[in-house]
Design goal:
Structural class: mainly alpha
CATH class: Mainly Alpha
Radius of gyration: 16 Å
Number of strands: 0
CATH architecture: Orthogonal Bundle
Order of helices and strands: HHHHHHHHHHHH
CATH topology: Urease accessory protein UreF
Distance between the termini: 36 Å
CATH superfamily: Urease accessory protein UreF
Helix content: 55-70%
Number of domains: 1
Number of helices: 12
């Protein structure tokens, strides 16, 4: 097992493949409630997007995802953690998003066979599947958390560009500005336990709920 954030060789290539936008998960179909936040005026531009994502990393579902990923890394209690992850989905769309992406990840990751795929329930929340598979392929817990969070933030920025909240250059500036937060959140999650789960981003949670009844939309969440 590779310790810390260092990762190289075949594990690095696998991590890059699994986190690539081209990996067939369908994450481009989801915004995690960002579309509703834009509709309601909570996020209006790149500065608002950066604040929205920073809050998610520090106090929101991104933090919880990272903790669940870390708890799933190399554990035998996958069924219990998977059930907890599913229960923590705060809305129908958040539940559908994480479960659909988790199942898609398992299917795509089967190109790299591992016994852990047989131990995971299906469907399963994405961070649980990612943490378990990363551990099975020798990817360290901190690198897995940080890579996962970077991919999630990148996906949200891509959604923001399609929602005309930001251009590509401004979106990259947001990604650059959040690097330290991504690294810090990933490192903290790697050292955390399930007792550290918890979120207080109420506006984001309400946006995710309200998106369920939004009439005109680009995204499934």
């Amino acid at each position: 097992m590779i310790d810390g954030a260092a990762v190289s060789g075949a594990p690095l290539l696998r991590l890059l493949a699994w986190l690539s936008p081209a990996f067939p998960l369908g994450g481009f179909s989801y915004s995690g409630g960002l579309e509703r936040a834009a509709h309601d005026g909570f996020v209006r531009d790149a500065d608002g997007l950066q604040a929205w994502l920073a809050a998610g990393l520090a106090h929101g579902f991104l933090w919880n995802d990272a903790v669940l990923l870390a708890a799933s890394h190399g554990t035998d209690a996958l069924d219990d953690i998977a059930a907890l992850a599913e229960a923590l989905a705060g809305s129908r769309e958040r539940h559908g998003e994480t479960m659909a992406l988790g199942s898609a990840f398992m299917g795509a990751a089967s190109a790299w066979p591992s016994p852990v795929l047989e131990r995971l329930p299906d469907p399963v929340a994405l961070p649980v599947a990612f943490g378990a598979v990363a551990a099975a392929h020798g990817i360290g817990i901190e690198a897995a958390c940080q890579g996962y969070l970077h991919a999630q933030v990148s996906q949200a920025i891509s959604a923001a560009i399609r929602l005309s909240l930001s251009g590509q250059v401004a979106g990259l500036r947001v990604l650059s500005a959040l690097e330290a937060s991504i690294l810090d959140t990933g490192a903290r999650a790697a050292a955390a336990s399930l007792e550290d789960l918890g979120a207080c981003t109420f506006r984001a949670d309400i946006a995710a709920l309200r998106h369920e009844t939004q009439h005109s939309r680009l995204f499934r969440s």
